[in-house]
Amino acid sequence: MSDAPLDTPAARNALYLVDGSGYIFRAYHALPPMTRADGTPVNAVFGFSAMLMKLVEEIDAQHLAVIFDSARETFRNEIYPAYKAQRPEPPEDLRPQFALIRDAVRAFNVPCIEMPGFEADDLIATYARHARKQGMEVVIVSSDKDLMQLVGDGVTMLDPIKNKPIGPAEVMEKFGVPPAKVVDVQSLAGDSVDNVPGVPGIGVKTAAQLIEEYGDLESLLARASEIKQPKRRESLIEYAEQARISRELVKLRDDVPLEVPVNGLEVRDPEHATLLAFFEENNFKRLVARLTALEAMAGHGGNQPPAGGSAPANPQAAELAPAQKSYETVVEEADLVRWIAAATEAGCVSVDTETTGLNPMSAELVGVSLSLEAGRACYVPLAHGATPVGQGSLLDAPPARPKQIDKQRALALLKPMLEDPSVLKVGHNMKYDWVMFRRQGIDVAPIDDSMLISYVLEGGAHGHGMDELSELHLGHKTITFKEIAGSGKDQVTFDQVPLDRATDYAAEDADVTGRLHRLLKPRLRESGLLTFYETIERPLVPIIGQMEREGIKVDREVLAEMSTDFARRMGEYEIEIYKLAGREFNIGSPKQLGEILFDEIGLQGGKKGKTGAYATGADILESLAVQHELPARILEWRQIAKLKSTYADALVGQINPETGRVHTCFAMAATSTGRLSSSDPNVQNIPIRTEEGRRIRRAFIAEKGHKLLSVDYSQVELRIVADIGGLEALRQAFRDGIDIHAMTASQVFGVPLDQMDPMTRRKAKAINFGIIYGISGFGLARQLGVEPGEAAAYIRAYFERYPGIRDYMDKAKEEARRQGFVRTLFGRQCHVPGIADKNPARRAFAERQAINAPIQGTAADIIKRAMIRIPAALAQAGLSARMLLQVHDELLFEVPEAELDATSALVREVMEGATRPVLDLAVPLVAEAGVGDSWDQAH
After folding, report:
1. Of 509, 505, 551, which Cα lies nearest the Cα of 680?
2. Which part of the chain is the 5'-3' exonuclease domain (predicted)?
3. What is the dihedral of CA 479, 480, 483, 488, to 10 degrees?
4. Which of these, 558, 726, 741, 882, is most buried using a 10 Å CB contact count?
5. Which CATH architecture has domain 561-662?
């Protein structure tokens, strides 16, 4: 790229002025913590760079600058020393990013402007005045209300997040006056954020009415005695001078002496090597990919990537990038036959299904896409054009259905290829497509899954959705569902999307899936993770898919009874809560609750968030419960309300009308440790430590003539701790079947086993499980209800008795710091972002993750190995039990009553031998079984 000024016919005579502070804080608060290799926080730098890059790509102007505040002290502090005095200091992890952000602007070859003694807004106002004198349009890239006084006469604003222009109409909507009178309104209303005093008792709405009636601030103050409302009249008279001071504070200076003139703000292309080096230094992989894409397009004579594509992020991806894109809509049988023949000959095809919903057991199949090579794909529509529910009438003819191959005929043609053992079918989240095809009578095999490949390679490092991976690895931004189907109440299901747009979207999915597969699959072998993927993650796809198909029966009557009872109990709590509060209020409103607790009752410890409302989360209420009964009642009310809405009421609506059962969806790549998670409904999050929570499981029942069998690993994570920590005393206790918590209490507190009391055992149990999660003295003290010093002494005694645990913890943290991830005993890599974070709280959290991940991840690997073996073992034994659910260390089956004993024995045997022959633990695994008519009885 050259550094000559941009000079193209499209570049108009305009100046874009970016409010740097606005960009910084939007970026910081929009993104989770991110650190580069040396531990420096960079989330705001990344977000700022991404926003600036997008702006640079899209603007059609000849001039551009980013304007920053130089320091907190400006001339306004001389006018009013308290100006902005109450503003908090920037967050600790944001401070080191300010200098890097300025480096980013310079790396983009964009003027970076600031001046001591003046705010960025003053510089923007001055540049705007000079640019208008030279006949330029001015676009201020910001949504800051203080800049709205500049709008008009060729000056507009642009909200960078909403990508929405702000003109006089938008200013009028916000302030109730045109831009020329914004200063007068702000002078009266003041600004609590900047500590602009204004006139007490007058807000923006009232101020706008007064200025519209009297014309301007001075006229209003001169005629203040005419105001009819006594309180308002007295305030205006008493605080007239304060209003005038406020005007000096809010009115922007447009006479700042500029060191760089407007003509010095020409748009110049960034120096590719400089910008690339900056991105690479800060580990901005996505921006490296995007920059490479733009540079590649510039090399072909263009300044924008083609629609739907860009150059990839690395040389390997470059080889997979299509020279051109060819997406075909297949509506003739002969064309489908041609694609199937080509896929069969190729021996590998990427496949994707388009449907009407996210749950494959309730969604309808709308179409299928196929891709054989980069840039070449097709979409086979099967059910487009049905009249949406609620549209049309008896007098209206339904819209013409676009031409498509008959659905059943198309599926019959696809079935042999999709089941052909010589053709590898590649999907992204293949489990969804597997279930969808299985509902059509097609058993897709063999398969590969680009999502799971990414998950095995970099679990915990980032998300594994196709859109994110496409940008990360291919430098390609995919078409979003909203772009083709709309959003909100106007969003349509995929069967209503026109075929041309549906083809672009669906074919791209198959195309990108294939490209990701070809790029990432070789990395499994390079990383030594191919065997792990092929023996643990990939075989689970049909296993978990079949679990989702099976679903589980729920009892409508039990749920109805629970809902009624929960409603009654909520009512009782509400009466008690109102009595404790002294008045009625909306219990579900955190804002109102915070005002009751901290402003009216006066409890200590209230903290306000960014919105100005008090925080009232569960942790806050638990700490307040020692001061007052009200927080405890609120917690109880919330628990009942959640159980009622999330389960007792919602589960009825989630019963599939075709099967009469509830079909949860299991996410295979959502956690950093390898655990599954579930949704729609979330069966893994039912609170079973309370009686109310356990009641929910009573609604999950067996079919007539069957029982539910629950088989659960006993203390599997503690067994893993004993193994990897080399704790011979605990190992022997597990081998001998001794109560492990009593054993720990005996070892740590010196109490003989035959004299063990429940309280001492409870302390040991809390330590045993707390150690797994890196619990602190404060955390343990909270659990046990003791002083932090006493709890810390317990932990010290534990480490003195079991030094192997401390050694393991130190080793895990060091491993995470050295390579960015830790490993389970089976070799799964669990990435630990933030392990080198400068922020102590974030770093401590990452260290706890590093300690816990190998333990929890190994447990996840063990039960997954068991799940893979159980269906084949049942079939070989001639048993017809169905595996329904997996919840962490538990598997739930529906079993014919006559086969209970045989099934229980077989499942326990498989689960207890799940580590072999790969791994021999130093402690035995124990699986415990329970049986009942309901899940609650079985567990």
Report:
1. 551
2. 11-268
3. 180
4. 741
5. Up-down Bundle (1.20)
